[in-house]
Protein 1
Amino acid sequence: MKKITKKPMGKATKSSKNTKAAKLTKNSFGQKKNNKEINKTFKKDTNSFKKNAKDAKIEEKKKIAKIKKASKEAKKNASNDNNKIATFNWYPGHMTKAKRQMQEDIKLIDLVIEIVDARVPLSSRNPDIDELADKKARVVILNKSDLADDKITNLWITYFKSKGFYCVKMDSRKNNGFKALNEIIYEACEDKIQKDLAKGIKNRPIRAMVVGIPNVGKSTFVNAYSGKASAKTGNKPGVTKGKQWIKIKGNIELLDTPGILWPKFEDQTTGLRLAMIGSINDNILNKSDLALDVIKFLYKNYKDNLYTRYEITTSEFAPSDNDLIDEQTQIALVIMDHIAAKRGCLKKGAQTDYDKVSGIILDDFRSAKLGCVTLERP
Ligand SMILES: Nc1nc2c(ncn2[C@@H]2O[C@H](COP(=O)(O)OP(=O)(O)OP(=O)(O)O)[C@@H](O)[C@H]2O)c(=O)[nH]1
Ligand SMILES: [Mg+2]
């Protein structure tokens, strides 16, 4: 049987290399005296070269490990987020009650004013309202239009009109646009006005109800529209079944409790977009992932806004050729690190503080410091 002996590979190579080097110096230069010195330098250089190579290898390994970890975390978070959104999609008992209440309220009104967020006009509307408000006059308000991309807002107005809605854009925090809204309301209720006239009824107020998912600005709109001087009309037994109405200029009455609809998470994107604009509690989704998605979206659709805000120059962000994460994510991560460095969001050892930098990015995005941006197009 053949005997396998283990050779001390490392040592043998090292000493033979050194002997070779010593011989080479002796033969080539005849400087026997300096051999020791040269040998020492050679050894030092080799060691330092080896050390550099080793360091580079360690760095590379660290980098890959970091990317692998980020990718693993992203996957884990994605599956968590799926669960979270699935949980969030669960239709709780009180929402069933609210829906029933709305069904009752809608019987009392002529017109439904549906408020949506102009940055996500589809994701921020619940299509159930179409069924609930069947046969009622309909106005869609693209609210928070001051935060949205005006060009796209105008495309949405055309879209909603083509679907048979009356539609206006609005910044509810400003007291303008209400005259135009009244005109639209009268136009939308023309049928009812004509029917009233045919029955000999003149100037019966138009009764309206505001509906929308949480945080689209229903209360802000109702307060601004009714104005400070507005008075609650009080109970009108028999007609209003105990409801409170707010009088609006122009013979319009508004039900004082807006109907709250639930966002409908038909797919992952809806939840994600609502989270991006801040309409879903940040605790529900992973903040860093959300900020990364904001960067990805801006990089693709509003690159100038992103680059201007954070003083980014194109040349800085070549993605590495790591194929563990898709290119967009790699770029977004590099941009995030850049923003963190600029904004002092660093932890010990100059590591990016992802939580802190994500907070800054999301705040900037939601307050339009990254420009007027719309997340979805018709
Ligand atoms: N920039 C901007 N912010 C708005 C506008 N309308 C409302 N907001 C802000 O959006 C946030 C939510 O507004 P609310 O009026 O409380 O929204 P809501 O629909 O009544 O919310 P819920 O009562 O939770 O269902 C507030 O911080 C408002 O100041 C708008 O047109 N433009
Ligand atoms: Mg409210």
Protein 2
Amino acid sequence: MRLLSGGVTLAAVLLAGAASADPDPTATLIVNDQIEIATRAPAPDHLKDVFDTVQSGWLYRTEETRALQMDDFDNPAMVFVDLGLEQWDGVDGSEGKSCASCHQGIDSMKGVRASMPKVNPAGNDLWSLENFINACRTQRMGAEEWKWNSDPMKQMTAAISLQSRGMASTIRIDGAAEPYWEQGREIYYTRYGQLELSCANCHEQNAGKMIRADHLSQGQINGFPTYRLKDSGIVSIHGRFVGCIRDTRGEPFKPGSPEFRALELYVASRGMTLPIEGLSVRH
Ligand code: HEC
Ligand code: HEC
């Protein structure tokens, strides 16, 4: 076991995996009393030697936090979805266009979040949802690109992600996407920071255990973007990756970097049998 710092090992901050720390086996996610979203699923083939079942991060949260995601009136992320809808209809840039000018209603984005990240139309890069949005802004609207973790970008990804709620993932990890997936897997198993911890050290080997006061999940991204109570705001997938690498006292890659987009594809593939939750609530 690697040293955390001053002789503290990861084992010391992990309270041994008591059965009570495992997710509540009876919890079922039903949104607005209507939409049942599976939070457990058989592991995808490429992960079968690691997990039998993949589980949503929702299962690892307290009953109170879980409840917030079960009703759109209580879900604080919905305020940001409304702001995203305003952006959708807002004219911006030299061409005098809004997103709606070309795409019509936001429901035209149904299934889009479930397919991300994917190889771009030119076939020479892996793009996240944010890249597609910025490509339309710069190439089709004559508008400036939004910063990855800016408010308008997070509001827009929130509004677009909601359109895929409950849908199955359609990501591709073969063909042109395969090299990115391989790169992402490599990053997932690399130890970072002074603590020398990989994503897998926490989210694979110790999922279900308590780390300090936190219940460690499998680190799935099917619920992203997510509303974090701690931040009172929306957190992007790459924003979460930054936080986790900082916790290892490592120097994270930049949001939107090729490394984080590849990691996004690989992490998405670890939960590709789970439906898209759009939008989850975490503490
Ligand atoms: C020191 C342990 C640790 C390491 C290393 C770590 N994480 Fe995390 N991560 C956490 C904790 C604690 C949380 C919050 C509780 C939870 O959901 O597991 C979290 C949450 C997450 C979540 C949010 C899950 C959800 O459902 O809300 C994702 C995604 C994630 N981590 C991905 C990663 C990735 C990718 C890496 C590697 C770059 C990584 N983590 C490295 C401890 C870690
Ligand atoms: C001038 C027309 C036009 C405008 C304005 C426009 N788009 Fe697009 N957008 C397109 C076209 C064309 C495509 C590629 C074909 C397609 O997937 O519909 C596209 C693709 C996309 C995609 C990728 C869809 C997929 O399935 O891969 C997203 C996401 C997107 N646009 C979001 C937006 C957002 C958000 C805005 C406003 C900020 C916007 N677009 C403004 C024309 C436009």
